[in-house]
From TrEMBL:
It catalyses: 2 superoxide + 2 H(+) = H2O2 + O2. It holds the Pfam family Sod_Fe_N. It is an enzyme of class 1 (oxidoreductase). Mn(2+) binds at H27, H77, D164, H168. Residues 3-84 form the Manganese/iron superoxide dismutase N-terminal domain. Its EC number is 1.15.1.1. It comes from Polaribacter aquimarinus. Destroys radicals which are normally produced within the cells and which are toxic to biological systems. This is Superoxide dismutase. Residues 93-197 form the Manganese/iron superoxide dismutase C-terminal domain. GO terms for cellular component: cytoplasm. Keywords: Metal-binding, Oxidoreductase. The keyword Cell cycle does not apply.
Amino acid sequence: MAFQLPELGYAYDALEPHIDARTMEIHHSKHHNGYTTKLNGAVAGTELEGKSIEDILSNLDMSNGAVRNNGGGFYNHSLFWTVMNPEDRGYLSGELKDAIEAEFGSKEAFIDTFSNAAATQFGSGWAWLCVLPGGKVEVCSTPNQDNPLMPGVTCGGTPILGLDVWEHAYYLNYQNRRPDYIDAFFKVINWNEVERRYAAAK
Ligand code: MN3
């Protein structure tokens, strides 16, 4: 079964004014769709065909550029759409709140750390909140479409929150103002989904 471009679960304009409809449409229907198509092409007829994306990325030969870039792009965006929600956002609570406060001291300090990781990732990449076995959380960033599942990446664990800081994610609305886009992201985070991912991964 080939990888399928996932539905967003909400309309392209649902995150307005924080993330604009045109950006969402191009990002999902062009960029994410492109990664999906190229991933399918890269695994077709190889030993990777039919494996889960998590399995492929966790055991990846990092010299395999086509799967690294397109498999990362497929996985990262599939996570990204789910951690935003226009309506049912919830709030930071429960075990995830406890883990974040244990690591960073407060929700505000976590937001500062995550925002700094996103702002200082040079060029294209992602900022992440990850869970390590046992439940400890950490923040990191990765270049291009790399992610924490991949071997040898700066942070380990399971990503439960990710922010795309490629210019295609914000340039139409925010131009070079990446920090404004990062601030906007925190207004649309779906904490219910992040908490669900935390519980599943810890
Ligand atoms: Mn992107």
